[in-house]
C-alpha cells in the first residue's frame, strides 16, 4: 500500500523531477554506435563550441545532434530563463531504439536479415 493520499504522492514525485533543460530525439535513423561518435566529441563542452564542432563534422549524425542541441538551448532560454552564453552540455547519450528487420534475397533461395537500427538521443544542459 502506498503512503499518503494520491495528491501527496504526486507532489513528492514532482518535487524529485529533474529541472535541467533537455531535449530528446526518439527513433533517430542512425545506430547508437554512430551517434556516440558525435556525442563523445561534444560532451562537457560549452554550447557555442559544440555547435561549431557539429557544423563542420562530416558525419550524418552530427546534423541530427545539432538540431537537437539547438532545441535544448531554446528550451533552456524559454522554459527555464537561462542565458545561452553560460550553458554547457552536462549529459548526452544515445540509447537503442527499435530495430526494423528487413530481408535481402541471396543466392540459392536463401535470405539474409538486414537490421536497420534506430536510437533515442538525449542532451541535457546546465549552467556554469
The percent of residues in helical segments reads 25-40%
Major sheet: 3 strands, antiparallel
The coarse overall form would be: flat
- According to CATH, the homologous superfamily is Ribosomal protein L22/L17
Strand order of the largest sheet: 1-3-2
Strand portion: 25-35%
Q: What is the typical, i.e. mean, pLDDT? A: 93
CATH architecture: Alpha-Beta Complex
Q: How far apart lie the N and C ends?
A: 42 Å
- Poorly predicted parts: none
Main structural class: alpha+beta
Give the SSE string: HEHHHEE
User: How many strands in all?
Assistant: 3
Count of DSSP H/I helices: 4
Explain how this protein is built.
There is one protein chain. The chain is an alpha+beta fold. The chain has one domain (31-127): Ribosomal Protein L22, Chain A (Alpha-Beta Complex). Helices cover 39% and strands 34% of the residues. The chain has helices at 6-15, 32-42, 47-55, 60-79; strands at residues 22-28, 87-105, 111-127. Strands 1-3-2 form a three-stranded antiparallel beta sheet, with helices on one face. Strand 2 and strand 3 form a beta hairpin. Helix 3 (47-55) packs antiparallel against helix 4. It is flat, with a radius of gyration of 20 Å. The N and C termini lie far apart (42 Å). The relative contact order is 0.23. Part of the 50S ribosomal subunit. One of its GO terms (biological process) is translation.
Amino acid at each position: 500500500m502506498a503512503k499518503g493520499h494520491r495528491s501527496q504522492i504526486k507532489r513528492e514525485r514532482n518535487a524529485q523531477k529533474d529541472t535541467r533543460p533537455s531535449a530528446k530525439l526518439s527513433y533517430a535513423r542512425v545506430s547508437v554506435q554512430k551517434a556516440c561518435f558525435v556525442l563523445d566529441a561534444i560532451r562537457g563542452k560549452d554550447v557555442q563550441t559544440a555547435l561549431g564542432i557539429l557544423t563542420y563534422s562530416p558525419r550524418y549524425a552530427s546534423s541530427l545532434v545539432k538540431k537537437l542541441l539547438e532545441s535544448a538551448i531554446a528550451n533552456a532560454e524559454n522554459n527555464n530563463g537561462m542565458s545561452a552564453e553560460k550553458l554547457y552540455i552536462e549529459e548526452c547519450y544515445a540509447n537503442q531504439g527499435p530495430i526494423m528487420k528487413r530481408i535481402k534475397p541471396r543466392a540459392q533461395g536463401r535470405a539474409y536479415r538486414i537490421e536497420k537500427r534506430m536510437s533515442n538521443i538525449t542532451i541535457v544542459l546546465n549552467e556554469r
